Predict the structure of TatD DNase domain containing 3.
Amino acid sequence: MFGFIDCHCHISAGDFDKDIDEVIENSQKAGLLALIAVAEHVGEFDKIIALSQRSPGFIFPCLGVHPVQDVSPEQQRGVVLQDLDAALPIIEKYKDHLVAIGEVGLDFTPRYISSETDKESQRQVLIRQAQIAKELDLPLNVHSRSAGRPTIHLLKEQGVEKALLHAFDGKPSVAMEGVKAGYFFSIPPSIIRSEQKQKLVKQLPLENICLETDSPALGPEKQVRNEPKNISISAEYISKIKGVSLEKVIEVTTQNALRLFPKLQSAIRR
């Protein structure tokens, strides 16, 4: 068993509607063993489940409610508990198919947050989803933009033991608090143009690193659609920073993903 696992991608995004079959085929040719398809809002849930049923043993569903929600294509706001209420029955319906709850988290980017009340709403939604993950014995797939420390603190307060912090944008010293708690950090192809991600990888132990693409975002080139096949770019750059072979990076990050998402194991060892 030798290949990559994309621990966080948005394969249900509209950007892939026209050529989804080709995107999946190209990712398999590029050596991917599995894609974890994350949700941002309830409107995507059925689409993600349908994609996972079309590519069983390759696309794995992960349902959750993101800390930022769209009001319209131009307008976004912080999540509120009502957004989660709509999602809960569908999470319950598909709970046996899920490999994780996500994408969940906190996003304290100023344009989405106008008050402490907004932050508290996000916290309440994350706490509830952390409880659901514990009830279902599933890991959390976590977003923490401009909120690295508060997110890690909240996860620890809630007794979360299994979490992936995707595309972490905080300081390496804050990430190390997550490492102490046993959390994993996934690195996207945008590492090649992000000094912050490069510093992060330098500090993180390889045993706490996973790979992701966050497709269609966070690709090697800004504003160009990212695809899961670009996962190798993350691995190659990590191997360069860590001074270890590419094979070692692939082997360790894949084992890390299988530890964090045990439901992948039976499918991948087929």
